[in-house]
Amino acid sequence: MLTSLSAKNFTLIDFVELDFSSGLTVITGETGTGKSLILDALDLALGARAEAGLVSPGQAKAEIIASFDIANFPQAKLWLEEHEFDVDAECILRRVINLDGRSKAYLNDTPISLQSIKQFSALLVDIHSQHEQHALLAKDSQRKLLDDFAGLLPQKKKIATLFQTMQLKEKAIIELDKKQDGSEQEIAFLNFQLEELVSLAVGSVEELSALEQEQKILINGQSTIEKISQVLALCEEDSPHLLEQMGVALQLLRQVEDPALNESKELVENACIQLQEASIELRHYLNQFEINPGRLREIEQQLDKVYHAARKHHVHPSEIFALHEKFTQQLSGLTTVSEQLMDLQQSLSADQKAYRELAGKLSLARKKAANSLAVDVVKMIRQLGLPAAEFKIDVNPLSERFTPHGMDDIEFMLQSNPGHAFAPMRKIASGGELSRLSLALEVITQTDQSASPSTLIFDEVDVGIGGETAGMVGKLLKRLAKRSQIICITHLPQVAACGDHHMKVEKNVKNNHTSAIILPLTQSARVSEVARMLGGQQSSTSHKHAEALLEEAKANVEPL
Fold first, then answer.
1. For residue 4, with 0-12 CB atoms within 10 Å meaning exposed, 13-18 middle and 19 or more buried, which class applies?
2. 524 neighbors 543 (Cβ within 8 angstroms)
3. What are the start-end ranges of the H helices in 199-241?
4. 24-29 and 408-415: which strand pairing?
5. Residue 156 falls within a domain, yes or no?
6. Can you give the pTM of this predicted structure?
């Protein structure tokens, strides 16, 4: 519940501090005095967008503070806990606005973003204005109103989530379709590349190294034969050759009998043996070695293919085998596109089936709620001076078109006069009819919803209404005020008389400075104000009429 509102340096308001109580508070005043300034100030405290020109002339900034009692409002407390704010019985919203329209918002003196403060304040206050009457003509608003009345938010969330999933899958299918369109050419190209790499007949880095080594050996074959032959000549053929000389050295050492030379004798003996074995190995190698120009040409052709492929793909020859693996993986990915596409299409089909089932259940719930809401609206608008009007809500299928809100086209229909056909409310409702329908819908859809805001504000929704109907509007608001705090800006004396509390807005001009003053009215001041609103002179007759209206409004009103 709103407990107080203060505004400083806000347009025509120099400073005002207002206390609010439960029940129905009415705000009145002459045309042009700035009755809506109170609502504008509160709206800014609740997170409305600020703009330049809101600060009073000659001042640097404006400040608006709104205090709420949330002791018995668990939804607001839960929000504060979830967003890590201190939770207390009192909650204070503060807005500071600079000359250029920039502003800062605070919740319990903690800075807060406008988006967050709007989320929170939506739990506290619901504002109904003439602008919202026109918004009610939009199909989206009508659908939301019906769904809120029926308590269909959980079902709508499921459908919205599933719709978003379907959209993502549809987008992915389009991308895969595009990919598949060009995949045949890409597959052919990759196959050609792979065939070229396979034709190299070299399967690994090790094979490449072995070929390069063999190439070096074959290229240096004649030189190798000559050098090995020279070594063998030194070991076996030249006179004296190494084996013979080593044998002589060993015989000489054996003739010396000194234990200190035993190790030297063993080393020379081993050297003789190793030299003999090396000579045998070299002879064997030389006998097996063959200069093979044909094999050399074959190796060089293989290596030329590898080097050519490496230059073509701008890689080192040793990296050509990793390239083969890369092409293989790309080819594998392309060949699975059709499989992925099929799986995704099947998944989307299953989602669409689930969506239709959810949308069908939602549609049935909407139709049931539409009948109930229409009956309640007709009852109320007949009390509000539309005795012959009929109202219904059409819930029609949208064919196969999926939307985030289901598959229903929802339209509020009105029959203004007997014998006339029903037509969309947006096409035929007059200003007065729209005001009454708006008020009826607002009252009905707020009833018995524990999560609804505890403060409702009506900004001249009674425009276009007069006479007995105006009295019914006042009584209706007074009845509604037994459940919620109601603040109503009105120009009707019948509505003003029903208020539990009455504030008046006056314009004051002093020393070439214009300001708006908001005053709580005493009982005698209320009589004078209601008499003024009745349109008569301030006379005993007009005062008696005003007193009669006020006395009548004191009658007990049954709660909704």
1. middle
2. no
3. 205-219, 221-232
4. unpaired
5. no
6. 0.62
Rg for the chain (alpha carbons), in Å? 48
Q: How many domains does the chain have?
A: 2
The span from the CA of 130 to the CA of 69, in Å, is 28
What token pair was written down for 253?
């050492």
Quote the tokens at residue 548. 């009669």
Residue 300, domain extent:
200-335
Kind of pairing, strands 125-129 and 390-397? unpaired
Q: What angle do CA 477, 481, 482 make, to 5 degrees?
A: 130
Q: How many CB atoms lie within 10 A of CB 556?
A: 4
Domain for residue 56, yes or no? yes
* Alpha carbon 374 to chain centroid, angstroms: 35
pLDDT tens per residue across span 528-544: 999 998 876 677 888 88
The residue count of the chain comes to: 560
Is residue 526 situated within a structural domain?
A: yes
| Residue in 15, 162, 3 with CA at minimum distance from that of residue 88 | 3
Residue 445 lies in a domain: no
Q: Where are the beta strands (DSSP E) in 360-452?
A: 390-397, 408-415, 423-424
Span 438-460, pLDDT tens digits: 888 877 876 544 456 778 888 87
Q: What gap in Å lies between CA 499 and CA 418, rounded to an integer?
A: 35
Which of 335, 366, 397 is the last residue in one of the domains? 335
CB contact set of 499 (below 8 Å; sequence gap of 6+): 23, 24, 25, 26, 478, 488, 553
Query: 17: domain CATH number?
Result: 3.40.50.300
